[in-house]
Amino acid sequence: MVRNEIALLNQETIDKIAAGEVVERPSSVVKELVENAIDAGATAITVEIKDGGITMLRITDNGYGIPKEEIPIAFLRHTTNKIRSAKELLSLHTLGFRGEALSSIAAVSKVELITKTKDSLTGSHYVIEGAKEISLEEMGAPDGTTFFVRQLFYNTPARRKFLKSPMTEGNYIQELLERLALSNPAISFRFISNGKDKFATAGNGNLKDTIYEIYGREMASSLLDVEAVEDGFRITGFIGEPAMNRGNRNFESFFVNGRYIKSGMLSKALEEGYAGFLMQHQYPFAVLLFEFEDEQVDVNVHPSKLEVRFERSNVIFNALLRVVHDRLIHREDIAEVPVTEEAVVLERPTMPAEPFERKRMEAIKASIVESIHKDTPYEAQYKDFYAAKRAAVAEATPEYGGAPSPVQVSETPSASLDAPVGASQDAPPITTEAAVKTQYEQQSFFSPEAKGDHRIIGQVFGTYWLVEYDGKLYIIDQHAAHEKVLYEKTMARLAEKTMTSQMVSPPIIVTLSSQEEAAFLTYQESFEALGYKAEHFGGKEYALTAVPDNLLNLDKQQLFLDAIAACVELKEDKTSDLILERIASMSCKAAVKGNHVLSMPEIESLIDQLLSLENPFRCPHGRPTIIALSHYELDKKFKRIV
Hints:
This protein has three domains: 11-200, Histidine kinase-like ATPase, C-terminal domain (Heat Shock Protein 90), CATH 3.30.565.10; 222-329, Ribosomal Protein S5, domain 2 (2-Layer Sandwich); 379-642, MutL, C-terminal domain, dimerisation subdomain (formyl-coa transferase, domain 3, 2-Layer Sandwich). Helices cover 36% and strands 21% of the residues. The protein contains 21 helices and 22 strands. The chain has an eight-stranded mixed sheet with strand order 5-4-3-6-2-1-7-8, covered by helices on one side. β11 and β12 (259-261) form a beta hairpin. α2 packs parallel to α6 and α17 (524-530) crosses α19. The protein is elongated and about 95 Å long. The model is unreliable at 82-89, 333-358, 367-383, 396-433 and 435-443 (pLDDT under 50).
């Protein structure tokens, strides 16, 4: 209800409104307090949480500490030791500067502070709850500061109910701390969740070591160093070998003057630098640090300081694109052929291994050597199985879906199938999905009775099949068609609970990021329902021991990572059916690609399977599988009808 009179809000209401702008979730609290610790000169920071940080957060540092007389002032709004005037906003060398963090956190939680400066004999113990001071007293304490933040949003329950699960909130905190560790390799970070160590960095100033501690051995062994000095700024850091790509941009990290930022401009420059090295919808790994001279960048443009404004965007864009592209061109890119497909992951690491790592790798390699000289009963059985399959194909009776696909080649880009034939602007359009649906409803092209009258003319461009029937020319995209067949078979087998797996021996060791691990653990039942099996192997590594049985000839590790990447962005309220569909759609990469010539029996078999589906019109990704061109439209094109 709107009131006529204007009144000044009380301080409690003001504080809660301000807190809503600064404190969105537990990770917001961690961000503000850890950034303050970094600004306070800390060289070691420990963050401990319980229940995703909702019930308890503890942030401990060995920084300068806060003098006793300044503690109450620090919890007032707009009090800071970072700046003194608006002019200094253009020459910031600290992460925090707004002076709202402590006030906002204290307004919506119960805060306990223990702090001591280096030149003080004793420390201070301060308690404030809901912006109300409870006590301030002396106590013994080590140099530095410790914050306990308990019962976040205890006095604003409407805010608390919008938080996500403790696992997800904890994952947000881990992602934040990993980025802070990457931008501050000289600081030792330790993160503990529910009593378990999640990660720790050495703080030795070596960025590559920090990447190793966060992303694991495989990623750290595939890094390319980057360094460039431009007019007014400098770029340093690492980019990943093209083979270490992912299915989303979560592995692109940019830091400006020590601050993590999100920038569409920098992402675009990075990805264009990889042009010619990555396929479409593949994204690179990068940890890039930008150092700008004063007044070249404005960080005061976003409440959470995740965005910045650059003075010379075009210069920065071109510089990043050039340095990335040049680094990729001048690297040594001669692939080593492994003894077995599974050995690719095991042979790549080049970094020195710890003793337990060496023992583990030697044991796995020994199992590979043994498998080379002697097939296990399981492998011998599958060799016989594949021999039988090849014989069946030779007899022109292919069986798609469960058997290996024909030889895989990259799918070549093609023009839109919905485009009209010819360049004339007044030409009648090709009949697409709507017309084919009409035929379907009339039980003509798709009816069992019509099958004997289909005349398969052949294959063009190694990609499209031409079928004549009842005055129309039907054009079928073989890749989209096979994707649809595989997807429908997978979903049917899921519904019937008849999914089977192919065992992977020896297991493939996969390193997952914190986001990927959280997504896999959240949707693990769905992965297992589809035939994936992965067991925790220590640290960030998982042993992939089984995959769906229609992925026999594909890169099992990459498909597993792509399936996880497809789930990273899913919301928690998604149903299990939607999750299964998302993961199952990744299995369709087993489909025969475009630009691959099939035999006539293979074409007939796949067309029969496509036309038997309830909805054959589009592949799982939305592309049309079939279009139609009428006899009448062809006559119009050749001016036989005017």
